[in-house]
Amino acid sequence: MTNKSKKVVLIGTGMVGMSFAYAALNQNVCDELVLIDVDRLRAEGEAMDLNHGLAFSGTSMKIYAGQYSDCKDADIVVICAGVNQKPGETRLELLGRNADVFRTIVSPVVESGFGGLFLVATNPVDIMTRLTYELSGFEACKVLGTGTTLDTARLRYLLGEYFNLDPRNVHAYVVGEHGDSEFTPWSQALLSTKPVLHVLRDNPQKFRLADLEDISIEVRNAAQKIIEAKRATYYGIGMAITRIVRAILSDEHSVLTVSARLTGEYGIENVYMGNPCIIGRNGVDRQIELSLTAAELQKLHHSCKVLDESYSKLKPSADT
Ligand code: NAD
């Protein structure tokens, strides 16, 4: 990434992609935003619509419908293209359908001469990110997914409600698969500087571990609940993508639970999963290996196993 203007290419201008684009415009995270979709007319219409809001935005962002050659000098390619989760469908069931979509996307991006970072949001996000890593041949630190950033935001919001505390002072993470096997390692959760488990111990009449487990379940089921109510989720993930893009473009070194490739952390290699990572200009600067209890480590290994098995089913075609 150079000192030139900050350029982001968005591939997939559906609900998630455009929620990101809208948040990015309002938060002024980049100087140039290129929209690409297999439905060219849709990308053009979205670019027009956003451009008509520019006068109210306080930015002079350049927004246009483009093509894969526009990725050449981009800092980040955000991929939100794909098919959506149907009611009752697990994220992993989406895998086959979205893998085919990715094969038509990653090659032309790489062939453009792109040398920036891939940020993937399409579900199942951990698998799609790993597929992007394999298909692109990029360094692992330059290929990341939204992982459990949204789940972590949901967790912090709900814990904030429960403990009557600003979510920004809740330091707790959802880790593992963005999906059914994700979990919250409570041993690592802090309210300000105090471990959550100590808060429970000191206030047994007020707070209970069972309530926290219910919150964890609520976080896990949130997407399904929203899909049942309004068919898709997009605002929250759009803002999560914006948050990650800002951390990268501003070289923040912020900790976010993106989907990143494990390289021996927790005794696991190659699997992409949500884990607290330090995010800056070069993507994943460092992974933070949490000091998990034996039971939590078991959950993490289970989550990785689920992800690895799904990916293995895909692998023969991923290598072609
Ligand atoms: P959508 O159907 O509204 O949009 C998908 C877009 O992708 C469409 O505009 C479609 O034309 C485009 N597309 C399809 N194939 C393409 C191709 N080959 N090249 C370019 N564009 C192509 O769907 P959505 O609601 O925006 O969801 C997008 C993805 O985001 C889904 O996989 C969904 O499950 C996922 N999602 C992820 C999270 C998360 O936390 N990571 C949260 C919500 C949704």
Q: What would you note in describing this structure?
A:
This protein is of the alpha/beta class and 320 residues long. The protein folds into two domains: 7-145, Rossmann fold (3-Layer(aba) Sandwich), CATH 3.40.50; 149-313, L-2-Hydroxyisocaproate Dehydrogenase, Chain A, domain 2. Helix content is 43%, strand content 17%. The strands form four sheets. The protein has a six-stranded parallel β-sheet with strand order 3-2-1-4-5-6, sandwiched between helices. Helix 4 packs across helix 9 (294-318) and helix 5 (149-163) crosses helix 7. The protein is globular, with a radius of gyration of 19 Å. 46% of the residues are buried. The mean pLDDT is 94.
Task: Give a short overview.
By secondary structure, the chain is α/β, with parallel strands linked by helices. It has 9 helices and 14 strands.
What is the typical, i.e. mean, pLDDT? 94
Give the overall form: globular
CATH class annotation of the largest domain: Alpha Beta
CATH architecture descriptor of the largest domain: Alpha-Beta Complex
**What fraction of residues sit in β-strands?**
15-25%
Name of the CATH homologous superfamily of the largest domain: Lactate dehydrogenase/glycoside hydrolase, family 4, C-terminal
Instruction: Output the number of helix runs.
Output: 9
CATH fold naming of the largest domain: L-2-Hydroxyisocaproate Dehydrogenase, Chain A, domain 2
Order of helices and strands: EHEHEEHEHEHEEEHHHEEEEEH
Number of domains: 2
Helix content: 40-55%
